[in-house]
Protein: Ribosomal RNA small subunit methyltransferase A
Amino acid sequence: MYSSLGNPKHTIEIIQKHKFNFQKKFGQNFLIDTHVLDKIIAAARITKEDCVVEIGPGIGTMTQYLAECGGCVVAVEIDANLLPILEETLKDYPNVRVINNDILKVDMNQLIREYNNGRPVKVVANLPYYITTPIIMGLFESKAPIDNITVMVQKEVAQRMQAGPGSKDYGALSLAVQYYAEAYIVANVPPNCFIPRPNVGSAVIRLTRYLEPPIQVDEPRLMFRLIRASFNQRRKTLQNSLNNSPEVSFSKEAIMAAIESLGMPPSVRGEALTLEQFGLLANYFSRYA
Ligand code: SAM
Structure:
């Protein structure tokens, strides 16, 4: 049986057979397009050597593809109603383990130790859109050994993750993601590739984890506070945003001096600063303010 689920007919058959009801609260939009599935697998660069962690296998459509291309798959699914379906659709794949849990409650380091002896894994998912950001930031912040994360997300969110200074999509999420990984949008995916159809466009994005952060920052947490402060009121100057934000409490003089140290004019806005410049700003405050 080769990846039998990636078409509408089989997906509807299995859903009807098990009388499965879609749960909106779990962001359940199942993929029904084999071309998109092929693209995700190719973008994730899965080989037989790989252990893949899949978040939200649904009825196991992508799981089958991953099991055929990868060494092993650990699939974490929150909805217990999907377990009998997964048992059936994945019965021919002994290299798949299904864990019934909320991914936000899973200790990623422990999971990787248990299923891949602590060696780096790849993460692949058609993510539930209601928790895209906490899932991705949680994976990065856990410092768990992850080579890359290839995920379907809302199109706008993918654009924000990949955006650079000067773009309207550039913001705190762009900088947070780009501190940890190189972001690359692989494909845009229209609503008709899913059952049921989502109300928004989607995109597949690959986040290739940096071995070392691309910039040297003394206190990354301070840098992220500065970033949040700068983008909270994005039409204001950087100076005013930092003066008025509860995220940081530096004197007006220190803020002016820090901006000057970047060689930027006092009228500069936060949205004009690169990740490197936010790093320099944070280093200035932690060293001199
Ligand atoms: N991978 C399947 C596919 O592509 O057809 C399903 C993708 S669907 C967009 C998202 C999946 O994530 C659903 O199966 C949903 O039940 C599951 N899910 C939602 N919230 C979750 C959570 N917190 N932890 C684990 N799985 C979750």
User: Anything to note?
Assistant: The longest helix spans residues 275-288. Residues 8-209 form a domain with the Rossmann fold fold (CATH 3.40.50.150). Residues 77 and 121 are 18 Å apart (CA to CA).
